[in-house]
From TrEMBL:
TM helices/strands, residue ranges: none
Entries under InterPro entries matching the protein: Multihaem_cyt_sf, NapB
Protein name (Swiss-Prot/TrEMBL): Periplasmic nitrate reductase, electron transfer subunit
One GO CC term, this protein: periplasmic space
Keywords, in A-Z order: Electron transport, Heme, Iron, Metal-binding, Periplasm, Signal, Transport
Organism: Persephonella hydrogeniphila
Pfam families the UniProt entry points to: NapB (PF03892)
Lineage of the organism: Bacteria, Pseudomonadati, Aquificota, Aquificia, Aquificales
Keyword Iron attached: yes
Stored PROSITE patterns: PROKAR_LIPOPROTEIN (PS51257)
GO molecular function: metal ion binding
Signal sequence region: 1-23
PANTHER family to which the protein is assigned, alphabetical: PERIPLASMIC NITRATE REDUCTASE, ELECTRON TRANSFER SUBUNIT (PTHR38604)
Amino acid sequence: MLKKKWKLLMAIPAMGISISLIGCQPGGTAAKGKAISSEELSYRKAPLTVNTAPPPVEFPKAPPGQSKRFQRAYENAPPMIPHSVEGLLPITQKNNACLGCHDPKVAKSVGATPVSPTHFIDFFQLIKGKVVKLNKLDPARWNCVQCHAPQANAKPLVQNTFRPDYRNPETKKKTILNKNVFEGVY
């Protein structure tokens, strides 16, 4: 009886190996599907060895204040930049042209989206269990284009089937992250 069980235990892995090797053979059943070329598998649609220029991309030309705002991609998503950034880049810690319009003290008067209140919190202090609100922009938040980007009029490389689920319809146009930034933390 023990000898019979031992033979069965040895036969199962051997069968698995045999089946997988058959699938790797040129005439095996697993290899009969259509092979996908490297061009079809890539977003470039060209071999990696070919120097291919990406298609031209058109960025917004409307100056700040004359463009249509984008709906947020998801609840509390960073707003995208709907206007031209020509002459506004590069952004440095000492020279941030974005704040000329988006500083909360100015934004309302010029019709701009104000910098979120979350950008005036020193999140490094949370390690110590403190919420430290700042009177000026958190030094870790000076590089606006790290999260906010101008939107190009470009054809998507793949179909986007994502559909955002907003718990609050208000968040399609503005953030309420300052109200729920600690949601699930404490």
